[in-house]
Amino acid sequence: MAKWSQVARRIRVPLGFAFALLYFWLARPTWRSIAVGAVLIVPGLLIRTLASGHVRKNEALATSGPYAYTRNPLYLGSLLIGIGFAVAARSWWIGIALVAMFFAIYLPVIRSEEAFLQEKFPEFEDYARRVPRMWPRMTPAPSTESGRFSFELYWKHREYQAFLGTLAMLAALIGKMVFSRG
Questions:
Q1: Of 64, 56, 74, the residue nearest 142 (C-alpha)
Q2: At 142, is the pLDDT very low, low, confident or very high (cuts 50, 70, 90)?
Q3: Exposed, middle or buried, 19 (CB in 10 Å: 0-12/13-18/19+)?
Q4: Range of the domain at 175
Q5: Which secondary structure element, helix H or strand E, spans residue 81, and what is its range?
Q6: In this structure, are residues 161 and 77 in contact, taking their beta carbons and an 8 Å threshold?
Q7: How many CB atoms lie within 10 A of CB 70?
Q8: What is the Cβ-side half-sphere exposure of residue 21, based on CA atoms within 13 angstroms?
C-alpha cells in the first residue's frame, strides 16, 4: 500500500487534468445544475481557503481553524468542490469516476500523509484521537495554536489557484451550455 500511495501522490495532478477533459466532454450542464453545484463548490472553496491560511507545512501540526474540525480540510474542501462539479455536470459517470478517484488516489495519499505527520509530530496521535479524518466534528477540538488565519500562508500555498481553476471550469461549463444550444 505504501508504494501505491507514492504512485497516487505523483499521478493525482496529471490525472486531475485528464479527468477535467473527460469531465468537460461528458458534462451536460444547465443553469439549475450549475446553481445547485455551486451550493457545494462555494463552501468547498471556503474550507480550502481557510485551511491554507492555517497550515505551516512540515513546520508545525495544524490544529486550528478548520483543522480543529477535521484532520484533512483541504481534501474535504476538494471533495465538496468535486461533488459540486459532478452535480453541475449532470452526469452519473462523472460522479462514479469522482468516487473511484477519491478511494483509489486520495484516500491512500491521506493515509500516507498522516503516517508522515505521526512520525514528524509526536502530538499527532492525540490530535488524531480527538479530530476525525474527514467528516468534521460539530464543535472545534481544543487547539494549542493561536488560530489566526494568515493571508501570507494563503498566498504562499498558492490557494488562489483553486479559486481561479474553479472560475475557469464554471466559465467552460457555461460556455458549453450556451454554445451547444446555439
A1: 64
A2: confident
A3: middle
A4: 2-181
A5: helix 73-89
A6: no
A7: 21
A8: 5
